[in-house]
TrEMBL record:
Family, per entry: Belongs to the tetrahydrofolate dehydrogenase/cyclohydrolase family.
A Pfam family of this chain: THF_DHG_CYH_C
Lineage per the UniProt record: Bacteria, Pseudomonadati, Bacteroidota, Cytophagia, Cytophagales
Domain Tetrahydrofolate dehydrogenase/cyclohydrolase catalytic: 4-119
Molecular function terms, GO-annotated: methenyltetrahydrofolate cyclohydrolase activity; methylenetetrahydrofolate dehydrogenase (NADP+) activity
Domain Tetrahydrofolate dehydrogenase/cyclohydrolase NAD(P)-binding: 138-290
Annotated GO CC locations: cytosol
Function, in words: Catalyzes the oxidation of 5,10-methylenetetrahydrofolate to 5,10-methenyltetrahydrofolate and then the hydrolysis of 5,10-methenyltetrahydrofolate to 10-formyltetrahydrofolate.
Protein name in UniProt: Bifunctional protein FolD
Organism, as annotated: Persicitalea jodogahamensis
Keyword hit for Amino-acid biosynthesis: yes
Keyword Metal-binding: no
Entry binding sites for NADP(+): 164-166, 234
This enzyme's EC code(s): 1.5.1.5, 3.5.4.9
Subunit structure: Homodimer.
Length: 292
């Protein structure tokens, strides 16, 4: 079994991004600038945004953190989005999800200027991705593709099973894996909460991407011998032995599945860190105007 070590790989990729930034600024380019909007005080979202901002510092980007209270109205949030759309110094920005229930995530995602949508959530970027046109790719699937590529995992003709049909992970992951480029050319099956015979389908996967958000859901009886197992889940589970009071659990029961897998991602230290690399890569592209 080979561990797909997101920590080591993300450090390598961040060093490469930093080198690109240094070259860009040496030629007179402006430092890439990423802004992040966080609405409310969700603990996990706070941690993710803090990590994104810290990563910006590590690669030599400028960053701006816009923090808004939980009771922010949709209109006020739209105003913040318009401000960032019109701020010539900001190359790209994200609105951290999930948003409070009274705000429509679709309305907000559609308000972000496609050229600054470094999360790749705007319908124009999703549509361009589907057509194979230059686009910002959703950061988590992008990070997973990078992981498969750097580990030289064969994907052509393989059966890739994605559990989860979310707009930000499952769906774009499935679309990217069936493209006629590497990493891709897979035969893809998307499974979800209504799927029948889930276990049997997963058992036929050469590459199993698990993104359903249920801690330790996938056990050894879902996995074929020699499969590549990508765990996207990250859930906080109460754990009194930890100083924080919680432990982070993936969607895959790691100790049970790892002996069967040819490659597997750990949680934490797997896909999560690669997501940040996807976001940084998109922001660098935005600064260099490579997509739009
Ligand atoms: N919430 C969970 N993942 C993501 C992500 O990639 N981007 C944003 N904006 N919110 C998220």
């Amino acid at each position: 079994m080979q561990l797909l070590d997101g920590k080591a790989l993300s450090n390598i990729i961040k060093a490469e991004i930093k080198e690109e930034v240094d070259k860009w600024t040496a030629k007179g380019g402006k430092k890439p600038h990423l802004a992040a909007i966080l609405v409310g005080n969700d603990g996990a979202s706070e941690t993710y945004v803090a990590s994104k901002i810290k990563s910006c510092e590590q690669v030599g980007f400028t960053s701006t953190f816009v923090r808004l209270p939980e009771n922010t109205s949709e209109e006020d949030l739209l105003n913040e989005v318009h401000k960032l759309n019109n701020d010539a110094d900001v190359d790209g920005f994200i609105v951290q999800l999930p948003l409070p229930k009274h705000i429509s995530e679709n309305t907000i995602m559609e308000a972000v200027a496609p050229a600054k949508d470094v999360d790749g959530f705007h319908p124009i970027n999703v549509g361009r991705m589907c057509k194979g046109l230059p686009a910002y790719l959703s950061a988590t699937p992008f990070g997973i593709l990078e992981m498969l590529e750097r580990a030289k995992i064969e994907t052509s003709g393989k059966h890739c099973v994605v559990i989860g049909r979310s707009q930000i992970v499952g769906l774009p992951m499935a679309i990217l894996m069936q493209r006629n480029t590497y990493p891709g050319n897979s035969t893809v099956t998307i499974c979800h909460s209504r799927t029948q015979n889930l276990k049997e389908i997963c058992k036929t996967a050469d590459i199993l991407v698990v993104a359903l958000g249920r801690p330790e859901f996938v056990t050894a009886d879902y996995v074929k011998d020699g499969a590549v197992v990508i765990d996207v889940g990250i859930t906080r589970v109460a754990d009194e032995t930890k100083k924080s009071g919680f432990a982070l659990k993936g969607d895959v029961k790691f100790d049970d599945v790892a002996p069967l897998a040819s490659h597997i991602t750990p949680v934490p230290g797997g896909v999560g860190l690669m997501t940040i690399c996807g976001l940084l890569t998109n922001t660098l592209k935005a600064a260099r105007r490579e997509v739009y």
